[in-house]
Amino acid sequence: MLRRLGLQVDLAGSGSQALAAAHAAETGGSPYDVVLIDWLMPHMDGLETARRLLAQAQGEPPKCILVSVSADARMREQALALGISCLLKKPVSYSTLNDHLMSLLAEPDAATRPGSEHAQAEQGLREAHGGATVLVAEDNPVNQDVARTLLNMAGLHADIACNGREAVEMASATAYPLILMDIQMPELDGLQAARLLRAQPAHASTPIIAMTANAHADDRAACIAAGMNDYLTKPVDAIVLYAVLRRWLSAAAPVSAAEHPGAEPRARRDGSMNGIEGLNAARGLEFLGGNEDAFRRALLTMTELYAGGLPEASAYLAQPVSPATIGPLRQALHSIGGACAALGLEPLSEGASRLGSALREAPPSGVDVGAELRAFLALLQRVLGEIRLRLGGPPGATSISDA
């Protein structure tokens, strides 16, 4: 992937080999600009390698990117303490790698500051493909709203399919230039839908971009095997989304931006969402490009959507554990977890992910699923109740029952 980006690449099979290569390159007058370091390596892990690499540099040290299959919080803290601000989670997509390298290697002027970077990505997509209509296959209403908002801000339109079956039907009737496809959906999942679309001559080469909360290598391989072109990890970063869309959208028959203005107005921050338990408002706003109106709408949709809690959780807690209750609960946790991640509801997102992982095991080991599930539902009730009070949601929007 690095060579496809036009970079010269040397490989090292261990931390000690990397240190030796970096020393030789600097001594030879061609020091490395960037070093990508795996976190978990034998003998010398990525953090220790980075520490020694930065310490041994005679001139300006190379920029380090730590790569890991884990999102370990302690590792991130240690990396930040070393001055490593760029961390990538495996498997790393081509688009994500490209965007992080561009950000890391760009000149530190005003054009590369985060707010400007988002505005530039948004404007570039609008100028190149403004007016295009993209099919979004997503079953969660909150995620639907987030996707629609991000596309509208860049001058694009979104047709929403609520499951894989609807996606196939809509794509069969309309020649969409690109399809964003969630993987886990009811009736027909994203992989099945992609295979059916690839069997149609009209969509044999239509770019299909997977959207998945799972970032494991086998998940990515399954997306590619189903005929998808690329994948985005949820919650989707707006800048990465715009880069992927711009790369894959066809420029044929563009529609003028004047015909489809698209971009939603941005409201000023009023501080009403600050201090809500379990809500990282800055993170949620970042995912929505700073559009506070859209953020508030999505949060209120969340309170309405989960006003009665999770029926699948109630069924799991009320009945003997069986595949009939585990499967629906895992699907529900996947859905609510992705929505929470997109809105900056980080403890809820992490709780849903932890429960979903525990339910993959039969029987779950090391986790009291019932107790964790009740704690998750209690937190959901408190957080959504506070959102409703702050933002003026409908009365009684959080009468959550855990069985």
Determine the fraction of residues in helical runs and give it as a percent range.
Answer: 40-55%
SSE succession: HEHEHEHHEHEHEHEHEHHHHHHH
The unreliable regions are 108-114, 251-270, 394-403
Coarse morphology: globular
Q: What proportion of the residues form beta strands (DSSP E)?
A: 5-15%
Name the average pLDDT: 81
Strand order of the largest sheet: 5-4-6-7-8
How would you describe this structure to a colleague?
- This protein is α/β, with parallel strands linked by helices.
- It is 50% helix and 9% strand.
- It has a 5-stranded parallel sheet with strand order 5-4-6-7-8, sandwiched between helices. A 3-stranded parallel sheet has the order 1-2-3, with helices on both faces.
- β2, α3 and β3 form a beta-alpha-beta unit.
- The radius of gyration is 22 Å and the shape is globular.
Characteristics of this structure?
16 helices; 5-stranded parallel β-sheet; 403 residues; 8 strands; 3-stranded parallel β-sheet; alpha/beta
List the helices and strands and how they pair.
Blueprint: H1 15-27, E1 34-38, H2 46-56, E2 63-68, H3 73-82, E3 86-89, H4 94-105, H5 114-129, E4 133-137, H6 141-153, E5 157-161, H7 164-173, E6 179-182, H8 190-198, E7 208-212, H9 217-225, E8 230-233, H10 238-248, H11 281-287, H12 292-305, H13 311-318, H14 323-342, H15 346-359, H16 369-391
Parallel strand pairs: 1-2, 2-3, 4-5, 4-6, 6-7, 7-8
Helix pairs in contact: 1-2, 5-10, 6-12, 7-8, 12-16, 13-14, 14-15, 15-16
